[in-house]
Design a protein that fits this description.
With 259 residues, the protein is mainly alpha-helical. The chain has a two-stranded antiparallel sheet with strand order 1-2. Helix 1 runs parallel beside helix 4, helix 1 runs antiparallel to helix 6 and helix 5 packs antiparallel against helix 7.
Amino acid sequence: MRGALRPPPGRARIALAVLMGAMVHVIFAAAVLAMILAMFFGMSRSLGTVPWPHAALANAALLLQFPLLHSLLLTRGGSRWMARLVPGPHGGTLATTTYAIIASLQLLALFALWTPSGVIWWQAEGWALNAMTGAYALAWLLLMKASFDAGAEVQSGAHGWMSLLQNIKPRFPDMPTGGLFRLVRQPIYVAFALTLWTVPVWTPDQLALALALSLYCLAAPKLKERRFELRYGDRFRAYQRKVPYAFPALNKGRQHDQH
């Protein structure tokens, strides 16, 4: 229709970027808060109300859905699927934001909808509570540090929507080798595993969670390293030979002194 007002170029793109940015950061913050609180109480306080023994199956489903879908979305097929989730031409640009939204929703479901068993084996008190709370807080600080070392914009989902806002092609950070990545190749997974085992309340629920997700933290990075080897080639292989996988080499300094 002649004379009809058309939106300025880029307005829809900017609106989509802002909407996705607000969505990912709100859901991400809610997921992190749910994780911190649920594990602090040993998974003994949550919103799940599935009657037992059916709750065991519901909890198992919640526990398995995260590592399975999380890893599946990182495959080539999963990446293509995520790029099509947002209609229009910007799905590819927003893929990392979409991935962070899905991962955050998965974690939020796991920790908010878990049905507690009602059994508490051990609960720290007095000086033990202070010590365990300090260790738990330190584990979370290490996780934050590792995430920043890897590229906080990618880990938080900001990379996609900020690229769209600036109307530029997403450019991933270089292969991380600084900070905690000098000590181990997978500091994010190591730090996350530490949060699982430093809680001040222990229940059957927390033990099941810690065992399952610790196994995931040891196995899942193998797939990540395959992608890094394809992307960075000899550079990653050299880094792989120099830096241990998950456990720092305590005798590294002595070996250098001997040489």
